[in-house]
Amino acid sequence: MKMRRLGRTDLCISAVGLGGWPFGGGYDWGPVDAAQAEKAVLAALDAGINLVDTAPVYGESEAFLGRILKGRRNQIILATKCGLAKNGSWTDHDLSPQTIRRQLDESLARLQTDYIDLYQIHYPDPKVPLEEALLELARQKQAGKIRHIGLCNVTAEEMSRAARIAEISSVQNEYSLLHPQKGEAVFKACRETGASFISYGTLCGGILSGKYKTAPNLRRADARNYFYKCYRADAFLKAQETSNRIKKLAEYLRVFPAAAAVAWALSNQTVSCALTGARTAEQILQNAAGADVTLTPQDLAFLEGRPCTCTK
Ligand SMILES: NC(=O)c1ccc[n+]([C@@H]2O[C@H](COP(=O)([O-])OP(=O)(O)OC[C@H]3O[C@@H](n4cnc5c(N)ncnc54)[C@H](OP(=O)(O)O)[C@@H]3O)[C@@H](O)[C@H]2O)c1
């Protein structure tokens, strides 16, 4: 597994990370087969993946990971988040200092650890200035409960503001063939501030693994219906075009389609780590293999459905 430096820290993270949302159960991603999920986590570690990402709003995910990772704590870079809370079918934003303190202590207890390697703001909160939240995170870093600070779902402007208050080690934003970042601004801000870019939704919730022949019949409350817009009937056909190109290239390269989709994200030199969720060992091993796939400019043009401008 290729390793990358996390921001300007002394930690190394794997180029492919394990996302913990699908382990949450409940309505988010449907029921979890705990035995399969445990095998997936262990297979990820065996494959050299060390970055494991979760969040308090991912249902049972933190508690599940806490049980499995116990005794293996020094093998992993544990990332979780603050600032979102489930309120029935709604998700509330709350980055007030008291909520950050409470959520951090609850995460530490569920994860059965006394420190978080990478503690991330899940979403900016329109009610609380980012600066106020970051000052609280800096205090928690000082207290030793968190080692490094990250941001998720931010703009370049928010990143620059945040970097004036605290050392920002990572930015985790959605990034995939179906959801490329608009413009270069966030990547440029990462390069300028030294933060690692971590992609989430690298497989767009599974679509880019190429496994669907028709749109899956998900329950209405399934997170994929509202979170990954490509699952909507009108967007699914376009998503399938991309998915078919991935499958075609993967067949030519003799790799798994999911590995090709991961390789596309990692082909961006500013992307340090591609997070993928997985329900099974087989899935995470396919995704981990993406770290070793090198795509040519022609491959990238083909995947993106644009003409290749190469001269050779
Ligand atoms: N910061 C944020 O706001 C934010 C938002 C979203 C996600 N994230 C993080 O990023 C992680 C990754 O995103 P994600 O889990 O939402 O989506 P994802 O990685 O794009 O998709 C994961 C899902 O795709 C399917 N899958 C994965 N590998 C596969 C393979 N090789 N073949 C076939 N199917 C495969 C599995 O679901 P099925 O088997 O059910 O199809 C899996 O649960 C999350 O787990 C979470 O840690 C962060």
Characterize the structure shown.
The strands form 3 sheets. The protein has an 8-stranded parallel β-barrel with strand order 3-4-5-8-9-10-11-12, surrounded by 6 helices. The protein has a two-stranded antiparallel ribbon with strand order 1-2. With 312 residues, it is an alpha/beta fold. The chain has one domain: NADP-dependent oxidoreductase domain (TIM Barrel, Alpha-Beta Barrel), CATH 3.20.20. The radius of gyration is 19 Å and the shape is globular. Helix 1 runs parallel beside helix 10 (281-288), helix 5 runs parallel beside helix 6 (185-193) and helix 9 crosses helix 10 (281-288). The longest helix has 21 residues, at 233-253. The protein has 11 helices and 12 strands.
Task: Sum up the structure in keywords.
binds NADP nicotinamide-adenine-dinucleotide phosphate, 312 residues, 38% helix, alpha/beta, globular, two-stranded antiparallel sheet, TIM Barrel
Oligomer: single chain
| Rg over C-alpha atoms, rounded to the nearest angstrom | 19 Å
Strands of the largest sheet, in order across it? 3-4-5-8-9-10-11-12
Percent helix range: 25-40%
CATH homolog superfamily = NADP-dependent oxidoreductase domain
Q: Main sheet, how many strands, which sense, barrel?
A: 8 strands, parallel, barrel
Q: Give the total of beta strands.
A: 12
Form type = globular
- SSE sequence, one letter per element: EEEHEHEEEHEHEHEHEHHHEHH
Enumerate the spans where pLDDT stays under 50 for 5 or more consecutive residues. Answer: none
